[in-house]
Design a protein that fits this description.
Helices cover about 15% and strands about 25% of the residues. The protein is elongated, with a radius of gyration of 33 Å. A hairpin with a 2-residue loop joins strand 17 and strand 18. It has 3 domains: about 280 residues, Leucine-rich repeat, LRR (right-handed beta-alpha superhelix), CATH 3.80.10; about 30 residues, no CATH class; about 50 residues. With about 400 residues, the protein is α/β, with parallel strands linked by helices. It has a 10-stranded parallel beta sheet with strand order 1-3-5-7-9-11-19-21-23-25, with no helix packed on it. It is found in: Cell membrane; Endomembrane system. InterPro entries: Leu-rich_rpt (IPR001611), LRR_dom_sf (IPR032675), RLP_Defense_Trigger (IPR051502). Its main location: membrane.
């Protein structure tokens, strides 16, 4: 067993404690004991120097996360969701500098979200939801990568073809060639991770994890304002801050989340207006600011915002717009005619300019008639066909009328 690299015992009915002797498997790279009934405290696994993937989720582990829990510089995945762990996140977690996936959802963890998590700059998926974290969201989260960036490489050598990130690269003899590619990590086919995105809990397996990115801080007791630094996460796909006590306005910097697909800010105490710049988020599929104190006009129903329903904005009594069937009052009303100014503002949303419509319709109708008359005047063949058609219509109507009235 000394050279065992993979141990998968998940989805069984094992009970009792996880034996501390398991840490003697020092060559282990993949350990999965998830979805059992294991209990007791977590043992120290610091002697597993080569561990890359650790799955302990779905058990009944209780107590603090040990300070000397892990010490592997190769660890990519740490999944200890849905247990009964309490206390704070130990500083030792921040030493796992290659960590890509950190899943702590569904425990009893409390205290402030520690700033030392920001040392995990390679993180792509972080789920701290359904705990009892309090205090503000760390501003330094804006400096975490949350997604793969292409890295620069150089090559020098013989003439050959290479394939990088789906593109052919030609390297000529005697020349340095610069190219970019997205680094990938050795996610096993058995490496399965569950994450909530687009209001749906899905499982992701294997290489697809190289392309997933998200931050879930929902269902905690977080307070304060949303840091504008989160707008620096230009590669993130999912951001869920719902079911907290966050206040203040939605940062305009969120318009820089160019790859975002799901943005959930519901069930907070947010105020102010929805930044109109968010209309430029071309990949946004799920958006919710429901159950807040948002005010002002909802963004125009353009681009992705044309796909969001009323449920995305519900329970914001001061929001207005055609989707909510609630008219907006202009903030720049003139003293002498406030109702007129308001009506002019609403005309942009609801009304069609009747004068322009009638003028366009009449002009188009006249142009069609003139064009038709011109064709009949120029072309005698079509003129004769038209007269024959009219004559046939008249005779048909005449015979129909005679037949109808003769039956009475």
């Amino acid at each position: 067993m000394t050279y065992l690299t993979t141990l998968v015992l998940g989805n069984n009915s094992f009970k009792g404690k996880l034996p501390p002797e398991i840490s003697q498997l020092q060559s282990l790279e993949f350990l999965d004991v998830s979805q059992n009934a294991l209990s007791g405290s977590l043992p120290s696994l610091k002697s597993m120097k080569y561990l890359e993937h650790l799955h302990l989720q779905g058990n009944m582990f209780i107590g603090l996360i040990p300070r000397d829990f892990l010490n592997s510089s190769y660890l990519l995945t740490l999944d200890i969701r849905d247990n009964r762990l309490f206390g704070s996140i130990p500083n030792s977690i921040s030493a796992l500098l290659k960590l890509k996936i950190l899943l702590l959802r569904g425990n009893l963890l409390s205290g402030f979200i520690p700033n030392h998590l920001c040392h995990l700059t390679e993180i792509s998926l972080m789920d701290l939801s359904n705990n009892s974290f309090s205090g503000p969201i760390p501003r330094c989260f804006g400096h975490i990568q949350f997604g793969e960036t292409k890295k620069e490489y150089y090559e020098f050598g013989q003439f050959h073809y290479s394939l990088y990130a789906g593109n052919f690269l030609t390297v000529y003899p005697g020349y340095w060639v610069k190219y970019w590619r997205y680094p990938s990590f050795a996610y096993e086919e058995k490496d399965e991770v569950e994450f909530v995105t687009k209001n749906r809990r899905d499982s992701y397996v294997g290489d697809i994890l190289n392309f997933m990115s998200g931050l879930d801080l929902s269902c905690n007791n977080l307070t304060g304002e949303i840091p504008h630094e989160l707008g620096m996460l230009s590669l993130i796909h999912t951001l869920n801050l719902s079911h907290n006590q966050l206040k203040g306005s939605i940062p305009k910097s969120f318009s820089n989340l160019s790859q975002i697909e799901s943005l959930d800010l519901s069930y907070n105490k947010l105020s102010g207006e929805i930044p109109l710049e968010l209309i430029g988020l071309n990949f946004l599929e799920v958006f919710s600011v429901a159950h807040n104190n948002i005010s002002g006009r909802v963004p125009d129903m353009k681009a992705q915002f044309g796909t969001f329903g009323e449920s995305s904005y519900e329970d914001n009594p001061f929001l207005c717009g055609p989707m909510l069937k609630r008219k907006c009052n202009t903030s720049t009303e003139s003293p002498d005619s406030p109702s007129q100014s308001s009506q002019e503002s609403e005309a942009k949303w609801y009304d069609i300019n009747l004068v322009v419509f009638l003028a366009t319709f009449v002009t188009s109708y006249i142009m069609i008639l003139l064009g038709f008359a011109t064709i009949l005047y120029i072309n005698p063949y079509w003129r004769q066909r038209w007269f024959n058609f009219i004559e046939e219509c008249i005779y048909s109507c005449y015979h129909f009328a005679c037949h109808t009235f003769s039956s009475y």
